[in-house]
Design a protein that fits this description.
This protein has 338 residues and is an alpha/beta fold. The chain has helices spanning 6-39, 57-73, 88-95, 109-118, 154-161, 178-190, 202-210, 221-229, 277-291, 294-302, 312-333, and strands at residues 46-50, 77-81, 103-108, 130-145, 168-172, 194-198, 216-220, 234-238, 264-272, 305-307. α2 packs across α9 (277-291) and α4 (109-118) runs parallel beside α11. The chain is elongated and about 90 Å long. The protein starts with 5 loop residues before the first helix and ends in a 5-residue tail after the last helix.
Amino acid sequence: MNTNTSFPAKTLASKRSQLLLASLLGLLSLMPQLAKAQAAFPSKPIRLVVPFTPGGVTDTSGRLIAEQLGKRLGQNVVVDNKPGASGNIGTQMVAAAEPDGYTLLLGFDGTLVINPHVFPKVGFDPVKDFAPIGKIGDAVLILVANPGVPAKTLKEVIALSKTQPNGLSYGTSGTGGTPHIAGELLKSRTGANLTHIPYKGGGQAMTDVLGGNIPLVYTAIAGAIPHVKSGKLHAVAVSSAQRASSMPEVATFIENGVTDFDINSWVGLLAPAKTPKSVIDKLNAELQSILSDPAVRERLNGMGIAATPGSADKFGQDMARDLARYGPVVKAANIKAE
């Protein structure tokens, strides 16, 4: 009986080698096609979902970036407004979209790093469900007062608040927004006795502080500039780390002695998670070029937004930082969605 098994083993090894070689050759043959497909992005229009109604600063900044991005990519970037649930509805849509780079999100700090703490369920995970592309810019926040308020400096505002049994009222654009979070953080850092008055939009809050119905408003700087310049409102301080270029005469909270008080509202671009890195890199590179254009920076500045060119990784790190630091503030203030 022949017990020699070396021949079948060699045959099996030979077949495996042939299969491996065939697989490698198949992959090599596909590489030019794959490279061509990646190089061709985008080959059709891109949809930019804005999870708010048209006309606001967030929407306007998104339309500017969409216009510029379309020019650079050679494809239309179509803005698609999907408002609802404080931005959660449109954001959910992008989280569930095909991760191919053709559906993007205009991300807003209120939706991505505050809503997850305020709403019992938002329908998305801001870290796991998105691939950051890049931050567009920071919208500086400012605390302003009616000129009739007998306090001009931050120190005087804090002192005055402590004399008010029901607290010194400050209005914002609504519960759970970045100005609200900033006000609550100011309370916890300084011991100020402040009472939050939520409005359905910053415009209503501004009308009431101008009319003397409330003493203070925490808001985005763009809406406050004309009133401060005309003397109808008094600027107390800005929440950015450095003074705002649009109002360099107004000191920061940090300069007023509130350490590490750097809170801005921001806006940026994101894609669904698992979008190819090559697509993210291309979109980030184009965004950086757009934000480096002096004309674009000037237009953003007119909206109260300071352009912040940077990497996708840096944007992701900023998001994670804000998500972590705002959670305790929301919990301590017992802020819940209305």
